Amino acid sequence: MNHMTPEEMSARLMFHVKHEAIADLQKFYQVLADGNEVMNLVGPATLPDYWSRHVLDSAQLLDCRPDARTWADLGAGAGFPGIVLSILLKHSTTLADGPAPHVYLVESLTKRCRFLQTVVDDLNLPATVINDRAENVSVKVDVVTARAVAPMIKLLGFAEGFIRKGADAWFLKGENVESELVDAGKVWKFDVEQSESMSDPRGRVIHIRRLRRAR
Question: What GO cellular-component annotations does this UniProt entry give (predicted)?
Fold first, then answer.
């Protein structure tokens, strides 16, 4: 199987990926691979597809909101999309003027928070690790996002507080998203737009607007 190269990943994006960002993403890969040997971070079979399955999947969010400076990644886990976003934002030149970009990595499992903090410290990333449940966190950000955290009906509850503070909601979802949206509609009202994922034609990038409770 031919696996995507960093250069091929970068070429798919409108967001400019600097060489320094590629170097940090390569360092992140090694830390991830080492960490995966002692804890369940990602499926081992997905590591050879790191640049497509994990990096491109995460980085495509910056094409959706290239102007966003602050992000919250709910259920940050192994660092997707949050660590990838923070690496790319660290090296961004398009956001050089104005407030510095920052990513909040929200994760309830302490062990995973320790892993995330190690990555943030080692790579000197513009990110803060928050060891708490998403619904307990109150920070104002431009975008709230998540990947492989929970079904949409629960995910919208996790993100509700951020959205009420003005956050734009962009979520990375799999092929079952249609049924998830139907279930979510029983509890929530919202406007939704979806597009095909760059990393997998079965995946979807979901944009949620005007979220409110159905009753």
Answer: cytosol
Alpha helices (runs of H) in 6-66, residue ranges in sequence order: 6-11, 19-36, 57-64
User: pLDDT tens digits for 1-42?
Assistant: 458 999 999 999 999 999 999 999 999 999 999 999 989 899
In whole angstroms, give the CA distance from residue 47 to residue 35: 12
Give CA–CA dist 163/143, Å, rounded.
8
Tell whether residue 80 is among the known ligand binding residues. yes
Is 115 one of the annotated binding-site residues? no
Whether the Cβ atoms of residue 123 and residue 50 lie closer than 8 Å to each other: no
Q: Is residue 75 annotated as involved in ligand binding?
A: yes
The pTM assigned to this predicted structure is: 0.96
Q: Does 146 carry a binding-site annotation? A: no
Q: How far is it, in rounded angstroms, from Cα 188 to Cα 21?
A: 38
134 labelled binding-site residue? yes
Residue type, 54: H
- The structure tokens 């970009």 sit at 101
Domains of the chain by start residue, with CATH: 6-213 (3.40.50.150)
